[in-house]
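Pasting as-is:
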Amino acid sequence: MSVVVKVDTLTFTFPSGWVAEKFDDSNFYRNQFSRQFNGIKAVDLLALSPERTAYFIEVKDYRHPNTIKPSDLADSIAKKVMMTLAALLPAKHRANEPREKVFATDVLGCLDYKVIAHLEVPRVDQLGIDPANVQMKLRQLLRAVDCHVRVVGGGKMRALAWQVD
């Protein structure tokens, strides 16, 4: 059975055998970890493949006119990935919900980590976002986590296993 997770106006559908969670909505993150310091933020989604690869997925939807324009997008995403990794360590032992402990343990036990920036933009020239530049900067910033960071969106999923509507 597929796994469906909604992030804002987008619906992510993962194949059978996958586990996915809206990490920044988890009780541990919201009620324990994010309250430690001002400015702590996490990625939107964590997804685990049956092959034990963890996907850190940050979603940005700039198609709506009132959306705040990006500034230092790659830096922001990189910080969220690093803070998510930092949150998973104590979640493994300190989360109040047993399923969150198990999920954190499973993510930390993965064989590989992948970072995906999912950007929905009306047109690249309207926002001044060049996905290729964002991808290049993310690869530099996160090479210790994933030297093959991918920027996807707008129907171009680049052979990822899940679908987004």
